[in-house]
Amino acid sequence: MTSAISIRDMLVTYDGFPALDHVSLDVGVGESFGIVGESGSGKSTLLRAVSGLTSFSQGTLTVNGRSYPGRRRDKEFYQTVQMVFQDPYGSLHPRQTVDRLLLEPLVIHGFDNIEGRITRALDEVGLGSGFRFRYSHQLSGGQRQRIAIARALILEPKILLLDEPTSALDASIQAEILNLLEQARRDRNLTFVMVSHDLGVISHMCERLAVMKTGKVVETMPAEALEKREFSADYTRQLLVASEGFRRG
Amino acid sequence: MTASTSPLLTVEDLRVTFPTRTGEVNAVRGVSFALGKERLGIVGESGSGKSQTGRAIMGLTPGHAKITARKLAFGDRDLLAMPKAERRALRGKRVAMILQDPKYSLNPVSTIGRQIVETLKTHEKISSAEAKSRALAMLEAVQIRDPERVFDLYPHEVSGGMGQRAMIAMMLVCGPELLIADEPTSALDVTVQLEVLSILDKLVAERGMGLIFISHDLRLVSSFCDRVIVMYAGKIVEELPSANLAAAQHPYTRGLLNCLPTIGTDRHPLPVLDRKREWAL
Ligand SMILES: Nc1ncnc2c1ncn2[C@@H]1O[C@H](COP(=O)(O)OP(=O)(O)OP(=O)(O)O)[C@@H](O)[C@H]1O
Ligand SMILES: Nc1ncnc2c1ncn2[C@@H]1O[C@H](COP(=O)(O)OP(=O)(O)OP(=O)(O)O)[C@@H](O)[C@H]1O
Ligand SMILES: [Mg+2]
Ligand SMILES: [Mg+2]
């Protein structure tokens, strides 16, 4: 398989604390790859290291055949790779209108038909043109998250890094966004790396997944293994049991 | 003291309206409910007014918005008529809200530990050492693995789920009588999610706290709460006992139950709602 993303032995530390502890992963071109794992296990750190927002002190990273040893990423990288952040509050500037937020990346990357693209992008995430001139602080949590998704898709990247893309959305809008993402992937042969704590979402969207714990990948498996319960890590089992809902004492 | 006859919280015909460049946004359009020492779930569509309902109860609505209600009372105390200072004193001590956007609500230039300690010292007369040990105990209670390390971290240095739990710790540390939890566990992996829910559960059962649990996760809410309110376009469209979700009548609620992806089902694309104009009337 040709790799869209290849990570070898990656180490990220903060003051000696290993947030990523020698992680290796391969994601194939056109594949949809899931990452699950405990809170604080390094899932966001992994995506941030790929995007160049966090530097790694050991290991190698190859994206689309190019090696990225440091944090530097050029324009070409961001045309290939886009990320939807876990925290839409932090990633969207609160004093910018939705219009500005969508316009800016299009202008930076020299796209044409800007008007048409903005209208379509808003439409795709189920927010009509009525939202176009709102400031991001005037939106609900889920509305912000949808703007973040629209903003990543509007640049037509080849690889999408999605950090909990639907955890702020109700099931009806989640279904629409997941359908939209799947459609985009089919149409444009996109590669996805998707972090979610919802195993239902991962098994619906992904072909393979990695389970992380304390900075390490403890298990990599095909998504069907979840259904057949063919996994070895204890933590994977706990996740599966817990996803069935709350049980009182 | 609260008279035993009045519920912990009474909300009658609550309305929240924002003026914007493109006209008024009616975020909440006449919401009414009463809350006792129980777990009340609020689910609803993104943008349906769940957070703004919670914020209005807390007095955290942005200043330019218009709030009206026939009645908004904590016990028998009128929240809208109360002097600002009194309301501020209530907030954090007797009523608390875990905001949906934890990182946005935490102070970026102060460490997690210092913020919890400050909250405690604002509301209680205690020594710094005692405040610190209570803060650490609280972080541990919300299942933070390494409380000593996290105590000294700034909000941008913690993961999504850790930030959310730090916010929960801060809101619980003073032992509120009414807690509004807005998507308190949406960033948590399911195992931690359940542990946080059992903490909230205990506070309701043992201390008689009243809990409003806002979430978009119908599955979770129905397994955790006593009853559930369903919101759509700023209004309550349905109220259900949790045990009886299957009896839901409103097409939005029924649709919600049907569009969840689950392990072992293969539905591509997922069914989506056919939203009818009359739902938003
Ligand atoms: N700038 C930083 N300084 C110090 N520690 C950090 C920093 N960024 C991340 N960490 C630590 O790295 C660990 C992994 O964080 P990360 O955000 O990758 O977790 P996660 O798996 O995405 O968790 P969640 O599911 O809660 O979002 C955490 O313990 C966090 O405190
Ligand atoms: N400052 C504001 N100005 C104008 N409109 C606003 C403002 N804040 C919120 N709104 C609007 O009010 C409505 C209700 O918002 P609210 O945050 O209560 O939704 P919610 O039900 O919590 O949604 P979510 O599940 O996405 O968090 C939304 O349509 C939102 O766009
Ligand atoms: Mg994360
Ligand atoms: Mg909300």
What does this structure look like?
The complex is a heterodimer of chains A (249) and B (281). Chain A is of the alpha/beta class and 249 residues long. Chain A has one domain: P-loop containing nucleotide triphosphate hydrolases (Rossmann fold, 3-Layer(aba) Sandwich). Helices cover 37% and strands 26% of the residues of chain A. In chain A, the strands form two sheets. A six-stranded mixed beta sheet of chain A has the order 6-7-8-3-9-10, sandwiched between helices. The longest helix of chain A has 18 residues, at 171-188. Chain B is α/β, with parallel strands linked by helices. Chain B has ten helices and eleven strands. In chain B, the strands form two sheets. Chain B has a six-stranded mixed beta sheet, sandwiched between helices. In chain B, strands 1, 2, 4, 5 and 6 form a five-stranded antiparallel beta sheet that branches. In chain B, helix 4 (112-123) crosses helix 5 (128-141), helix 4 (112-123) runs parallel beside helix 7 (160-172) and helix 5 (128-141) crosses helix 7 (160-172). The interface between A and B is large, with 59 and 62 residues. Bound molecules: adenosine-5'-triphosphate (2 copies) and magnesium ion (2 copies).
Question: What is the topological layout?
Answer:
The complex is a heterodimer of chains A (249) and B (281).
Chain A: E1 3-14, E2 17-28, E3 32-37, H1 43-51, E4 58-63, E5 66-67, H2 75-80, E6 81-84, H3 88-91, H4 98-108, H5 114-124, H6 141-153, E7 159-163, H7 171-188, E8 191-195, H8 199-205, E9 208-213, E10 216-222, H9 224-228, H10 234-242
Parallel strand pairs in A: 3-8, 3-9, 6-7, 7-8
Antiparallel strand pairs in A: 1-2, 1-4, 4-5, 9-10
Chain B: E1 9-20, E2 23-35, E3 39-44, H1 50-58, E4 66-68, E5 71-74, E6 77-78, H2 84-90, E7 95-98, H3 102-105, H4 112-123, H5 128-141, H6 147-151, H7 160-172, E8 178-182, H8 190-207, E9 210-214, H9 218-224, E10 227-232, E11 235-241, H10 251-258
Parallel strand pairs in B: 3-9, 3-10, 7-8, 8-9
Antiparallel strand pairs in B: 1-2, 1-4, 1-5, 5-6, 10-11
The complex binds adenosine-5'-triphosphate (2 copies) and magnesium ion (2 copies).
